[in-house]
Design goal:
- Its EC number is 6.2.1.1.
- One of its GO terms (biological process) is acetyl-CoA biosynthetic process from acetate.
- This is Acetyl-coenzyme A synthetase.
- Belongs to the ATP-dependent AMP-binding enzyme family.
- GO terms for molecular function: acetate-CoA ligase activity; AMP binding; ATP binding; metal ion binding.
- The two termini are 28 Å apart.
- The chain is of the alpha/beta class.
- It has a domain of 127 residues: 2-Layer Sandwich (GMP Synthetase, Chain A, domain 3).
- The strands form 8 sheets. An 8-stranded mixed β-sheet has the order 12-11-8-6-7-14-15-23, sandwiched between helices. The chain has a 7-stranded mixed β-sheet with strand order 5-4-17-16-18-19-20, with helices on both faces.
- The radius of gyration is 24 Å and the shape is globular.
- Strand 28 and strand 29 form a beta hairpin.
- The protein has 21 helices and 30 strands.
- Bound molecules: 5'-O-[(S)-ethoxy(hydroxy)phosphoryl]adenosine.
- The site of 5'-O-[(S)-ethoxy(hydroxy)phosphoryl]adenosine (WTA) has 22 residues, from helix 12, strand 20, strand 24 and strand 25.
Length: 674
């Protein structure tokens, strides 16, 4: 937990009470021809009240937006902490995202507009074409023995095949586990092992800032000691030479030639697993968040409809990678279930120049743009001149996700990118919640820069003390959700005890988000940040314990502690304190080696910004590392608070000595994805 002496991230980010109170911006209304879905704040409040008073009525009504093979019997069952939704219903998520759009005018509408990083590579897939590709891939998976309930790991760049593979898994009832292409062999191996996947889909590489990401090499390294994977399907993307294991590896294009282009989807139960997505927690081991079919799909779909107000004529761009939950819910399932057209881009925002995004918005006339604050901060830093060359008049709505957005950055986004005419929807949610939980409704909810504003329908969010009592406005506390919702995680994969322990035990009767927040006088939510040892680096969740175990796995390291410090671009940056083994000497070369080691183990996003070699770490008498003190050292702030539990009082001087000659690694590329 945060110590009250410390500066809160709010203060560091410059969110002050004064600033938040003055700014109250009417949400610009889109001047389109269609009627707004929600027309006033009063209507929102009435519907919100109803959704909490009669959740079953509300969700049953919403669930009519899904195509069912068989209707559910019971809307929800709640045996704390295990929820079931639309029990007895049968559906297929892929059919809802693809097949049902073929029956009407959307058949030849673009489902995916894709641009590769190398200039000039553009691919457009209509719903009809998407259907064919998904069916063929489904048949390839079946041909290689994948059956309902089997796990398939997807380790791909942002190319149409990533979306197609996810949908193909959903179609045959296989459970996909997408691993972010920026993760290295260590993280990949851990995820494959935990999910016991029998098949992996990867590529011969992907483009990122002009370079090629060696996905296949990484995968081969990850598979070296694993026996569960029998088949690897390889997408030909870069045509660069790759290692090959005969009998295990197959080129996907060759396999696609062998199968038919139609396939009858599996009838899945509402509560059948749809996917596992690993995310960071307080322990060194990532958690396998399990989502099921109907509730998840419905959550992703209705939030896309209301919060992004997605229409048939929109070109919608969520910049997230499919390796993250945002990519699952708001690149694939939400917008496609709505019959939208999604734009997908493979590469880096600054390749070949920092105007790349704006050029693509102009080229394709993108109308909805959803990205992360860390990206917006990078744009702001690169300067306005990169934007001013492009015509951004097609934009009508902007979104933000992943971390708190500084009010100044929000204003810049609103004014410079949105030209003051686009509402900015700051959306708060998590891998575990599956869909957006707190966000404004565009054109309706008055906006306050830096606040995710008000809860979505059916979401009973509150700020409480450790006993679960609601706190008055202005008081910081734990952000909880007080009742189950359709798109919530059902459990942690094969670890229901940890599920109960992590989410349902800290605050009695509530789902604990792990975030601290407060509400203002208007009931608006202000997210302060994580309360656990999870950091948010460039919009990505990283557990300090994961980085610590990666460091400790290096032969020169005896012990390591990792903390975060505020960073103007990344939100938070990693600072590592490392105790070396006797034989090792603290050289610059070793430091670089350790950074490279972490990149290999987890991925480049986890490379510590600073590594301090130290002789000791501040510990309590029971041996627990006092992170609060390390944070002060990392933040270069005065060490305050109670030091009486510190076992070795000389440690602080030793650490201060280490800090006086900060050993800072080379600057990272300005990106939020690697
Ligand atoms: C943080 C990403 C402030 C929060 C969808 C949460 C945010 C964690 C916001 C989940 C926001 C996400 N404002 N903080 N709008 N959105 N967060 O699982 O700390 O990758 O707990 O899901 O990101 O990260 P995750």
């Amino acid at each position: 937990m945060r110590n009250s002496d410390e500066k809160s991230p709010d203060e560091v980010r410059g969110i002050t009470a004064g600033l938040t109170k003055i700014r109250n911006i009417p949400s610009p209304r889109w001047r389109g021809t269609r009627k707004p879905r929600i027309s006033s704040l009063t209507q929102y409040r009435r519907l919100y009240r109803e959704s909490l008073q009669k959740p079953e009525v509300f969700w049953a009504e919403q669930a009519r937006k899904i195509s069912w093979y068989r209707k559910w019997r019971t809307v929800s069952q709640w045996e704390p902490p295990f929820a079931r939704w639309f029990v007895g219903g049968e559906l297929n998520a892929c059919v809802n995202c693809v097949d049902r759009h073929l029956e009407g005018p959307r058949r030849y509408k673009a489902a995916i507009v894709w641009e590769g990083e190398p200039q000039g590579q553009i691919r457009v897939l209509t719903y009809q074409e998407l259907h064919r590709e998904v069916c063929r891939l489904a048949n390839v998976l079946l041909r290689h023995g994948v059956r309902r309930g089997d796990r398939v790991v997807i380790y791909l760049p942002m190319i149409p095949e990533a979306l197609i593979t996810m949908l193909a898994c959903a179609r045959i009832g296989a459970v996909h586990s997408v691993v972010f292409g920026g993760f290295g062999p260590g993280a990949l191996q851990e995820r494959i092992l935990d999910s016991q996947a029998r098949l992996v889909v990867t590529a011969d590489g992907g483009y990122r800032r002009g370079a090629i990401i060696p996905l296949k090499e990484n995968l081969d390294a990850a598979l070296a000691e694993l026996s569960c994977v029998q088949t690897v399907l390889v997408v030909r993307r870069t045509h660069c030479p790759i290692p090959w294991v005969e009998g295990r590896d197959y080129w996907l294009d060759q396999e696609l030639e062998k199968v038919r282009s139609f396939h009858t989807a599996e009838r899945m139960g509402s509560e059948d697993p749809l996917f596992i997505l690993y995310t960071s927690g307080s322990t060194g081991k990532p958690k396998g968040v399990l989502h099921t079919t109907a509730g998840y799909l419905l959550g992703a779909m209705v939030t896309t409809e209301y919060i992004f107000d997605l229409r048939d004529e929109d070109l919608y761009w969520c910049t997230a990678d499919v390796g993250w939950i945002t990519g699952h819910s708001y690149v694939v399932y939400g917008p496609l279930a709505c019959g939208g057209t999604v734009f997908v881009y493979e590469g880096a925002p600054d390749h070949p120049s920092p105007s790349r995004f704006w050029e693509m918005i102009e080229r394709h006339r993108i109308s909805i743009f959803y990205t992360a604050p860390t990206a917006i901060r990078a744009f702001l830093r690169w300067g306005e001149e990169w934007l001013s060359k492009s015509d951004l008049s097609s934009l009508r709505l902007l979104g933000s996700v992943g971390e708190p957005i500084n009010p100044e950055v929000w204003m810049w986004y609103f004014e410079k990118v949105g030209g003051g005419r686009c509402p900015v929807v700051d959306t708060w949610w998590q891998t575990e919640t599956g869909a957006i939980m707190i966000a404004p409704l565009p054109g309706v909810t008055p906006l306050k820069p830096g606040s995710a504003t008000l809860p979505f329908f059916g979401v009973d969010a509150a700020v409480v003390d450790p006993e679960g009592n609601e706190l008055p406005p202005g008081n910081k506390g734990r952000l909880v959700l007080r009742r189950p919702w359709p798109s919530m995680l059902r459990t942690l994969y094969q670890d229901p005890d940890a599920y109960r322990q992590i989410y349902w035990t800290p605050v009695p009767g509530c789902y604990f988000t792990g975030d601290a927040a407060y509400r203002d006088q208007d009931g608006y939510f202000w997210i302060v940040g994580r309360m656990d040892d999870v950091l948010n680096v460039s919009g990505h969740r990283l557990g300090t314990a994961e980085v610590e175990s990666a460091l400790v796995s290096h032969p020169a390291v005896a012990e390591a502690a990792v903390v975060g410090r505020p960073d103007p671009l990344k939100g938070q940056a990693l600072v590592a304190f490392v105790i070396l083994k006797e034989k090792a000497s603290p050289t610059q070369a070793l430091m670089e080696e350790l950074r490279a080691h972490v990149a290999r183990q987890i991925g480049p996003i986890a490379k510590p910004e600073e590594i301090h070699f130290t002789e000791a770490l501040p510990k309590t008498r029971s041996g627990k590392i006092m992170r609060r003190l390390l944070k002060s050292v990392a933040n270069r702030s005065e060490v305050r608070g109670d030091l009486s539990t510190l076992e070795d009082q000389t440690v602080l001087q030793k650490l201060a000595a280490a800090r006086s000659e900060p050993i800072i690694g080379e600057a990272e590329p300005e990106s939020w994805e690697d």
